[in-house]
TrEMBL record, chain A:
Name of the featured protein: NADH-quinone oxidoreductase subunit B
Keyword Membrane in record: yes
Gene3D superfamilies: 3.40.50.12280
GO cellular component: respiratory chain complex I
Keyword Metal-binding among UniProt keywords: yes
Gene Ontology biological process: aerobic respiration; electron transport coupled proton transport
Transmembrane segments: none
Domain NADH:ubiquinone oxidoreductase-like 20kDa subunit: 80-190
UniProtKB/TrEMBL annotation, chain B:
Species: Tropicimonas sediminicola
Residue ranges constituting the NADH-quinone oxidoreductase subunit D domain according to the UniProt record: 152-313, 317-392
Role: NDH-1 shuttles electrons from NADH, via FMN and iron-sulfur (Fe-S) centers, to quinones in the respiratory chain. The immediate electron acceptor for the enzyme in this species is believed to be ubiquinone. Couples the redox reaction to proton translocation (for every two electrons transferred, four hydrogen ions are translocated across the cytoplasmic membrane), and thus conserves the redox energy in a proton gradient.
Entry protein name: NADH-quinone oxidoreductase subunit D
Keywords, comma-separated and alphabetical: Membrane, NAD, Quinone, Translocase, Transmembrane, Transmembrane helix, Transport, Ubiquinone
Compartment(s) of residence: Cell membrane
Membrane topology, from the record: Peripheral membrane protein
MF-aspect GO terms: NAD binding; oxidoreductase activity, acting on NAD(P)H; quinone binding
UniProtKB/TrEMBL annotation, chain C:
Gene Ontology molecular function terms on file: NADH dehydrogenase (ubiquinone) activity
Official protein name in the record: NADH-quinone oxidoreductase subunit C
Ranges for domain NADH:ubiquinone oxidoreductase 30kDa subunit: 27-144
Protein family according to the UniProt entry: Belongs to the complex I 30 kDa subunit family.
Native source species: Tropicimonas sediminicola
TrEMBL record, chain D:
Record-linked InterPro entries: 4Fe4S_Fe-S-bd, 4Fe4S_Fe_S_CS, DPD_II, FAD/NAD-bd_sf, FAD/NAD-binding_dom, Helical_ferredxn
Organism: Tropicimonas sediminicola
Protein's name according to its UniProt entry: Membrane bound protein complex subunit mbxN
Pfam families: Fer4_20, Fer4_7, Pyr_redox_2
Domain 4Fe-4S ferredoxin-type: 37-66, 78-107, 173-201
Organism ancestry: Bacteria, Pseudomonadati, Pseudomonadota, Alphaproteobacteria, Rhodobacterales
Keywords from the named record: Iron, Iron-sulfur, Metal-binding
GO molecular function: iron-sulfur cluster binding; metal ion binding; oxidoreductase activity
Entries under Gene3D superfamilies matching the protein: 3.30.70.20, Alpha-helical ferredoxin (1.10.1060.10), FAD/NAD(P)-binding domain (3.50.50.60)
Amino acid sequence: MKDVDDKFLKNLDRTVPLREELRPRKVTTPDGQEIEIEPLKDYFCEAAPKVHAKSYFPIVEDFYNWARANSLWILGFGTGCGAIEMRPLMTPRFDAYRYGIQWRPTPRQSNLLMISGYLSVKTLKRAIRAYEQMQGPKYVVGLGSCTINGGMYWDSYNTIKRLDQYLPVDLYIAGCMPRPEALLAGFMELKKLIKAGKCEGANKYAENFATYKANQKSVIKDWDMPDYNW
Amino acid sequence: MFSFKPDRSQYPAPGPDGKLQIDLETGKYLKLWQGPNHPGITGNMSVELTVCGDEVVEGKTHVGYLHRGFEKLMERRTFIQVFPIVCRVCVPEPDFNEYCYAAAVEDLAGIEAPEYAQWMRTLILEMGRFNSYMMFLGGIGGALGLGITGQWMTYVRDLMLDRFEELTGARIYHMFILPGGVRGHLPEGFEGRMEEVLDTAERYLADIDRVMFSNSVFKTRTKGVGVIDPALFEPYGVTGPNARAGGVAKDLRKDSPYLVYDQLDFEVATATDSDIFARATVRRADVQTSIDLIRQILKKMPKTGPAMAKIPNVLHWKIPRGETYIKGECSRGEYGYYLVTDGTGYPRRINVRGPSYTHAMALLEHLIPGTNISDVAALMVSLHTYPPEIER
Amino acid sequence: MRDIHALLKQRHRLGPLEPRKGGLAFVTVPRENLRGLLLELRDTHGFTHLVLLTAVDWMEDGLFQLTYMLNNRGRDLTLGIRVMIDREEAQGDTIHDMWPTAATYQRELKEMFGIDFPGSPRLDEEFILEGWTDLPPYRRDFDSLAYSQQTYAERPGRVTHDPREYMKSKLYPDGV
Amino acid sequence: MGLREVLTPFTVWKHVFDDPVTIKQPIGRPAAERYRGFHQNDLDTCIGCGTCEAICQNGAIDMVAVAGYDPEKGNSGLKPQIDYGRCCWCALCVDVCMTGSLTMSNEYTWVDTDPDAFRFVPGLEEPWKDDEEGYEREGKRVLSGIERIHMEEMEPEARIGNFDEIVAGYSRAEAILEADRCVECGLCVATCPAHMSIPDYIAAVRDQDYDRGLQLLYETNPFSEVCGRVCTHKCEGSCAALHEGDPIAIRWLKRHIIDEVPFDRRIELIGQPAEPTGRKVAIIGAGPAGLTAAFDLARAGHGVVVYEALAHAGGMMRYGIPEYRLPYDALDRDIGVIEAMGVEIRTNCRVGRDVTMDELRRDHDAVVLTIGLHMGRSTRVPGTEGAGVEKAVDLLRRITDGEKVPLAEQIVVIGGGNVAMDIARSMARLQKAEFGKVGITLTALEDIDHFLADPEEVVESREEGVKIFDARGPQEVMRDAEGKVTGLRTWRVKSIFDAEGRFAPAYDQSDERVHAGSMVIEAIGQAADTSLLGAALTEALEWNRGRIKIDTAFRTSEPWLFAAGDAVKGPDVISAVADGHRVARTVMEKLAAREVAQ
């Protein structure tokens, strides 16, 4: 393994300008009207996420948690290699559906985001958007070494090393990549945690929103989306 | 047949050069992103479609969501340290990376892998090809709403993964083909268990024939759709089954035999129509070839023999200056490693030539205009591209 | 391969042929002669398949090597054509009109090495990277690990010991 | 589109009645036998060489100290800690492991909410610690060479008739191949008494950078010609490679470096000594310890005079080690480099006879005593007094001096150390020249597995016709009526040491043997000849069981007098070299502190 070049310093001067179509500007509509638009403001709600309070009655909260634990709907977003081991879970051989787990195509319908391994900066941006669009209470599970401490891409210029810097992670599954059986074990563990009321990732995200945003913006240089979109 | 005939009467007038002038602000055109988080996309990539009505008038492939900078990382690693990371370049068929890299290193270092290792490598590559085609056959059905093929083929692929697991010690990233040979020998009773898997696979494939290839819906939606003019094969670098579906029997296993393919008996499957259906049938026939080849290899391969050639101490392995290109026929076409060494213990440059690179970028962008939105997914799957090998 | 090389050597000022095993060979050509050579190889000698186009950074020599790999399927020949270009003002000649797929390669080279190919379509669009502000990453003077350390947080708390130094500190701390 | 195409797909409904393929209990389903799951490590076998850390391309492995495992010879005591936030389960660490201690289980399930939990030392307490199944490498390691590159040697028939050097030395190609096997763990460095930077100079051989190699050698050892040939090479006994194959031929590689650098170039590479300091040091005895100290002191700019009683410098390296193991010209080159540093060697100058200790003390800022062990010890069994019984060191010295030594057709040697082998093989050569055949019997207290001599010495002795009888205790030198030696009577040894570990051989008297021979040579050990000190100084100094007492920094009880080498410590050249460095360092510290001022 080559030693690190001590003299190398990353370029801090250059910034990425906002894309043309996202800048506030005047446009002419098809019917001839001239209007001012500001795409990043017009289309999104900018309100920051809020902490979701627990129910006043513990028994009600327990009931909620029981229900949540038994309907883990996973966002079908294969962010990295580990996604290939999720496919067998959707088929009769491993049949994750029997545990109340299923995959949904859109963030709106899902409450569990699986980060399947490494995240390149480009995908991190999409993962953040997907996460923020999901309905709470929502959970994040990190698959494999890459989400824990960078994995085998620890020296890559394009992948993050610690997922918990950018998204609140509820559970990690070791492996490169974890087998379907290990994933199922992870889901069972997640269910236990949810039932015990210990999966407070979404609230953690809301509480530490500023920190998360700062971390995200430190690596995503062309931040061309609103701070929170849901 | 019900072929897609867009109604262009409502389209904005083309420019003086006859080309479409796409101005989004006219409201006639719409940008539609398919991917990266989209059920109709292969892996983690995206296609930026410009649609007018339900006709796609422009498509741009966007990649880089899986970019890890492999070619840079390889330059930081010693020759043995590159070995574990190469397989990650292509997730569904990782073995080709291992083979091409190992063979490239052997070529420049002047090492010859032992005969047993050559046979074993061929076996692994064919098993990997089989798996890759299982992904394809599942995917092409899925792209057209035929969910059952995905269920069946994933199951069969899983059985093959079990064989991979007992042979190589891993399910997906096998890391079995080392520069200098392979890591081990066949486990006891492997042939019998493999035969069971192949039998099961053939049964399921017969069902696939009935449920997919003889299915009027499937035929209607794939025949005559996404035709690649064979004249485009060379300019667009089309190789593998995509070219074979257009009647060009391009197959490096025959054209430029590597490993022990010259000692194996097989035919190259071709088709003539060069449409989605033809590309699917070619691959269907190729699965059968792979099954036959696996049987042949297990029968013909030596029972014992050294698995590894003598290699220098890998901790400070230096390879003299040189460059080489090693290629092989993977399930998608020509896969190759271009390796440049400079006499140090690290590669100077490694370039991975994945077939998806040309198929998913230039070719797909060329094919998309004029198709229906609903066909884009099937068109993309029919090219059989794996995003991680595009951006590496 | 030797016959083709002998035939084209004078006309295109080819360097010596460097054959490797299995119908593979490499040859160097001056940049001015590249286009003519590619055209003749493609149209006359059956090298119709552009296998790959990539670059090698010879930073110490101040050069980029562009490698055009062409294949003649009928005769099972692969020819790697090397063009050395200046690293400071890295510029190559686009061949996307000969092989449309070359445009993709040229986009990648522009982004990853900073090599310009005037006239190549969509050359300045972002290809793989997004919001990249540093040196083109495949250049040798870009250190991936250093960049990573300066950009992405790492999990703290790891320490390691060199066995030799550790034994020294434990067994003969005074160094003798 | 025909009706057939519409109906055919429905035929697969026949599978409705098939058994499901679902795995009933998927969680914890056992993985394949070879599956590369979580790591295991046999901590008792692991030597902490760190090769796993070196090969890991993910930087996943740290070498950490683990309670209960301390550094010792050939074992750093460190253990690998694996970060599963980095690992990719490629098992290169398993393949490269020098001892085979690192393996993998086929366990694969580990989920945790704490990302910092995925860091562990395999072998300590993980649940899969003792799992049988999982990945182990097939056969021996293949990622680094197992077999030592063969060293060209003279055949026994060719070498027995003369004193020519036996070992040829590596060629460049051979040396590169041998150096290539080194994994640069550095476990050997601690074992080497002089702590030579072994992995670094082996790397220099690999890189064909002999200039750098020579500079590295001279940093720690001015006797590379000597040590490259006759070093006891304890380093090779702690080499990580010996656990599955042959250790690296460290000694031969050292010799290879010195062989490749011409004499003049060596002096050039080492460079000139420092500016003269005006301080003067006297060294008594031009053996390895004395000359090493002289070299170091001279390099630092001090004036050094070495007093040597015998005709040539070199001490036991010249007078103890036979020429076929260490040619004199090789030794002369090493001494030549030392002299080139400005060291003055006065040979034939016996302290106590030609110059007195008081004079030395008066004329110098410090005096270093490195007189070695030149007096042979006797077994003192009946019959050792008188003609026909010789001491090995005396004979070796006389052979070196070119004297004619007593010889017999059948000789019995007592002793199992390297000196015994040296004298046996030297006498064998003389016998071959004189009588045309070899007749040497060697008896030793130790059994053959515990011989003090190097194993290759034993092998070569046997090849040359020396008959070795192990575990024999000498009881009497038999003499005939005229007093001529006829043989040696021995008993079989039951044990050498008593329960407290003291030397007290126990014999089996029923197993008696007489080894015929007309000459007996005793090679059972040596003593220092301290008569040169004179009565007053002998009285003034503190002693420890017959040896001059020194502290850890080689100071005697007299502040101006230092002692080092075999005379006070022992037992071999490289230890003497190490002592030389240390005593030189102490002397220089003292000189710097002006504590030794008159």
